[in-house]
Amino acid sequence: MKGLVFTTFFGFCEARHGADMLEDVIESANLPHGGAYTSVGTYPFEEMVALITAAVQATGSTMPAMLEEFGAYCFASWVKKFPHLFDGKDLFDVLAGIDGFHETEVRKLYPDAELPSFVVVARDADCLVLHYASCKPLADLAVGVIRGAADYLGASVEIGYRQERDAVRFEIRRARNLLAA
Known about the structure:
Helix 1 packs across helix 2 (19-29) and helix 4 (63-81) packs across helix 7 (139-153). The model is unreliable at 177-181 (pLDDT under 50). The chain is α+β, with helices and mostly antiparallel strands and 181 residues long. The termini are far apart. Helix content is 55%, strand content 15%. It folds into two domains: 3-61; 68-180, H-NOX domain. A four-stranded antiparallel beta sheet has the order 1-2-4-3. Residues 2-159 form the Heme NO-binding domain.
């Protein structure tokens, strides 16, 4: 896993819970190198799991809630770096373009990154269906990214998902459908 994910997680922990809690999380995770990460380095996924688990224990949160909150924070960090890719855009266009974002912005900085894939399965004005495939079990983080995007873009949506064979199927419905149902 790229170090950028670790450094972003540290920023998330510190922003949400303070520097002291971040230090406690790093210490509790019992990392082999004391939590020193560079954004361009590559590190074992198990170390991220240890950090998230320690943060869950320190906050009394749940793993899905922590991952969702972190996913929303990740989206906000993308907006800070690349506002032109998101400002004034439609939520469905942004979500349908995540793979393109990965290829144009992330790959050029991290050519060896193991990136998740978001493939549009179906789309109409009120519903977007995506298949999310990743070598890491982070569907809850993807939910957070979707919620973060919806919040940032002012879109009221309902997000449903279920595990399928080799992917997670996300169904994102605009709120106007929810009121009509």
